[in-house]
Structures are given as structure tokens and as C-alpha cells.
Design brief:
heterodimer; A: 3 domains; 15 helices; B: about 100 residues; alpha+beta; GMP Synthetase, Chain A, domain 3; three-stranded mixed sheet
């Protein structure tokens, strides 16, 4: 595959953005990490969503399109991501990323002409939601207004892909309508949150729960989890991610958390880390070979990465001990149901609950330490204008 | 000398990684033309947004090289007409996916 060298720098930018984004995320959790610019914590969300996932997804679309012009999308997004990686947040990065998302919408225009179908419409709507969020970001809207549009982008993109695979099971019209209603509720909630933040986020949560319920009943992973090897690994990762989507939806419904705070953080990370990153991990063994032309043979150790992912998603979801235990128990339950092994699943779940406390407490201690030294933390920064919230 | 059934059998070794079903039973292989040591395959993807075309093409080429050594040249074209449809799946693919269970 001669295209691989062209794709490699783009993938590298995506991964660099993820590394920078995680660095800032740990700093926000209270880890004592050096920051080149004091106000750089603001870039955590944009780096993770646009720099990392945006670059990866637009690259995937360009590869799927198969025409050279499609690469304008990942190139523009990656250029914006590099600016986020290497410098303070200015207006060029949002501009480049917005332009890249517009090219992605254009890619879907061509894909639509190849095959007009509901799943393409959903994925196109996801790309439009990303663009809508980016335009607001470019216009100076606070991240906590933009982030739910970005959430819609990722949720609709993934949901569209799952709907596409669901065709294998020949869904009835009712099943397809159920899906449309769930997705429309998510999007309607996000749009409503522009004017009525709390009710909008709650409505979005209802949509996320409806979508989780749909995926849990109708996704092809329910069948493919019975296969072996890579296919089973992907299905297990996906089903684990759906649990987190439901957790995110439940937090949204209960809290209506539309502005920065603990519940807002928990909601966003349940979806972005628990759900979206599970998808990335599930597909990594085929995305990397597809994009780079380098084989990545399946190995059982892949499960360790996914386990660590759920563990890392956990400290973010720090809604007190209750949810902590809830999360641990859910993973235990899923592990048990998927037949990973009752006892191992149990130990894994208990381990999660035990382990989550330590980094969190460490983080809190460091927060206190930083506060003593007069360093502003994201939560406090949000007080003045609140546009630093996002992730 | 390689024959179309030999090639078809080789392609049964190529699994769609996400679904775990081979590309022949999924109905992704539209045509197989054998001309001496040259093989021409027309295939599709389940989705036109799918980025896996190159990945599957590589798997197809290696499967043919491994199983039908007579073949020296493999030419693969990805076609979008007609678009893939679930009706193109074989009964075996449906059985593997447990179709009908709800």
C-alpha cells in the first residue's frame, strides 16, 4: 500500500494530540505536571476530540473515499491539531479544524451519492454536528457550549457505523425507527441545550439511554461475541463501551449537568472515555493495518489494554463512592456475562473499585497542594467566564 | 491450473474481522475471472464509507497466493454497483450470525 507513508504523519499527529491531551487531562486531575503555558488546560478537550479523534476519523473517511482530495480533511484537522499541540490556543487551530470538518461533510456528500441510506445520513449528521460545534468554538463560544455538539459528532458517527452493520441482521422497520428516535433525541437535546442548557442535557441523556438500549439489544456485537479471536475481542470491547454510554446518559438525565463541575466531568468522560475510546480500542487492530498497511495480528493481550482503559475511565467518573462501586460492579457484571470468567471478572471488578480510590485521593491531595501554591485549577478557573471547562 | 472454484475456496479463508464471517458467504465477492495464471476479482464492501478496502484486498491477495500458488497476478476491483445488500449473504453466513434470534 503506497499510500501508507502519506497517512503516517497524520496518524502521528493524532497520537501526539492524544498524548498531549492526556497530559493536560492528568494535570487537570491534579497531577503535578509541568505545563508550557499556564492557561493550556483549556486545550484538553479540543485536543482529545478534535486533535486525536477528529484527525483519526477524518483520515478514516479519506481512506474510505479513496480520492486524493478527501485527504484535505485530515490534513486541515491535523494542522489545527499541531497548533494545539505546540502552542497556546489561538484562533488558527479552530479555523483549520472547522475547515477540515467542512471537507468531511463534503466527503459524505460523495459517499451519499454512492449509496444513499439511513446510516450514511446519520454519519453525515454527525459530521454536521461536529462542524456546528466547531463554528461556535471558532466564534468564541465557551467549550461547555461546544462540547455537547462534539459529543453528538462522536455518538452519531459510531451509531451510524453500528446501524450499518445491523443490516446484517435484517432489522425490521420498527427497529430502525427506534434507532432514529433515539438518535434524534440525542441531537434534539444537544440543540435544545443551546437555549435551555439543563433540560437540553437531560433530553440528550434520555436519547443516550435509548441508544444504549438499542445497541444492547440489536447490535451485531451481541452475535459476534460468540465468535473467536479478533471478532470476539472487538465485540467484548464494544459491549463494554455501551455500558459507559448508558452511565453517561443516566448522569445526564439525573443531573442535567450543562456547566462545568464534577457531574459534568463524569458525564463527558463516561461517554468520551468509556464509550468512544472503547470503540477506538475495539477497532485499533483493524484501523492500524487499514490506515498504515502494517499487519497487527490479534493477540489475547489486547484484552489487557481494554481493561486498563476501563480502569483509566474510572477515576474521571468520580461521582462519589456510589457510582464508583456501581461502575466496578457493572464491569464485573459485563465480564461475567461475556464469559470472560466469573471469578476473574469478579476480581477485575473488585480490583477496579479498590484501585480507583488511590489515584483519585492522590489527585485530590495534589489539587490541595497546587491550591496552596496559588495555582488555579480548572474548576476554579471556570468561575471567571467559564470557557475553560471543556472536555 | 487454477480454477474459479479454487479461488472461491481460497477467499473463504478471508474473514471480515468485525463480523467473523468470510467474504464469500457475506456476498462481498461479485465475480472471479481466471485467465491462466492471472485472476481478476470484483468485490464490494458492506459500506461505501468503509476504510477497509485496502486491508481486505491485501488479505485476498495473500489468501490466493497461499492457497493457489499457480496464480502469479491478482487484480482486485472494488465495485459499488450494485450496492451490497443483506440478501447477498449465504445461508451459512446467516446461520453464523444467528439470524432470526431476537
Amino acid at each position: 500500500m503506497g499510500l501508507a507513508p502519506r497517512r503516517l504523519p497524520l496518524l502521528a499527529v493524532g497520537l501526539l494530540s492524544m498524548a498531549c491531551g492526556v497530559w493536560l487531562g492528568l494535570a487537570r486531575l491534579g497531577w503535578n505536571l509541568p505545563l508550557p503555558w499556564q492557561d493550556q488546560l483549556i486545550a484538553h478537550g479540543p485536543l482529545m476530540v478534535c486533535g486525536f479523534l477528529g484527525t483519526l476519523i477524518s483520515l478514516e473517511r479519506a481512506v474510505g473515499l479513496g480520492s486524493p482530495w478527501g485527504y484535505a480533511a485530515p490534513i486541515l484537522v491535523a494542522a489545527g491539531a499541531v497548533m494545539l499541540d505546540l502552542g497556546p490556543l489561538g484562533s488558527y487551530a479552530p479555523l483549520l479544524i472547522t475547515a477540515g470538518s467542512l471537507v468531511m461533510v463534503a466527503i459524505f456528500g460523495v459517499v451519499w451519492r454512492r449509496q444513499a441510506s439511513l446510516f450514511i445520513a446519520i454519519m453525515t449528521t454527525g459530521a454536521v454536528a461536529w462542524t456546528a460545534g466547531n463554528v461556535q468554538w471558532l466564534g468564541g463560544a465557551p467549550i461547555f457550549r461546544v462540547v455537547f455538539w462534539w459529543l453528538a459528532f462522536l455518538v452519531l458517527t459510531i451509531a451510524g457505523e453500528r446501524l450499518e452493520l445491523n443490516r446484517l441482521l435484517r432489522p425490521t422497520p420498527i427497529i430502525r425507527w427506534e434507532f432514529v428516535v433515539a438518535v434524534a433525541t440525542v441531537l434534539g437535546g444537544v440543540a435544545a441545550a443551546t437555549w435551555w442548557p439543563e433540560p437540553g442535557v437531560r433530553a440528550m441523556g434520555v436519547g443516550l439511554i435509548a441508544l444504549t438500549s438499542w445497541l444492547a439489544r440489536h447490535d451485531v456485537a451481541r452475535r459476534t461475541v460468540r465468535q473467536r479471536g479478533l471478532t470476539r475481542f472487538m465485540a467484548v470491547s464494544l459491549l463494554g463501551g455501551y455500558v459507559w454510554l448508558g452511565v453517561g446518559g443516566a448522569i445526564a438525565v439525573v443531573s442535567g449537568a450543562a456547566t462545568p463541575g464534577v457531574l459534568y466531568d463524569a458525564l463527558l468522560h463516561a461517554v468520551f472515555v468509556g464509550f468512544v475510546m472503547s470503540m477506538v480500542f475495539a477497532h485499533a487492530p483493524i484501523i492500524f493495518p487499514a490506515v498504515l498497511g502494517v499487519p497487527l495480528p490479534y493477540h489475547q493481550s489486547f484484552y489487557v489494554h481494554v481493561g486498563v482503559l476501563h480502569l483509566s475511565g474510572h477515576p474521571h467518573c468520580r461521582v462519589g463512592e456510589g457510582v464508583g462501586h456501581f461502575g466496578g460492579s457493572l464491569i464485573q457484571l459485563v465480564a461475567h456475562h461475556l464469559g470472560i470468567g466469573g471469578e476473574q471478572g469478579g476480581q477485575f471488578g473488585r480490583g477496579l473499585v479498590k484501585l480507583r480510590a488511590d489515584p483519585l485521593l492522590g489527585g485530590l491531595q495534589q489539587r490541595v497542594e497546587l491550591n496552596r501554591r496559588g495555582i488555579e485549577l480548572p474548576g476554579e478557573i471556570l468561575g471567571d467566564g467559564g470557557d475553560l471547562a471543556g472536555d | 491450473m487454477a480454477t474459479a472454484p479454487d479461488i472461491r475456496e481460497a477467499l473463504r479463508q478471508v474473514l471480515d474481522p468485525e463480523i467473523g464471517v468470510n467474504i464469500v458467504d457475506l456476498g462481498l465477492v461479485y465475480r472471479i475471472e481466471v485467465d491462466g495464471a492471472r485472476v481478476r476479482i470484483a468485490m464490494t464492501m458492506t459500506s461505501p464509507a468503509c476504510p477497509l478496502a485496502d486491508y481486505l484486498k491485501d488479505l485476498v491477495t495473500s489468501a490466493i497466493r497461499d492457497r493457489v500458488p499457480d496464480v502469479t497476478e491478482v487484480d482486485i476491483v472494488v465495485e459499488w454497483e450494485p450496492p451490497w445488500d443483506p440478501d447477498m449473504m449465504s445461508d451459512e453466513a446467516r446461520r453464523q450470525l444467528g439470524e432470526g434470534e431476537r
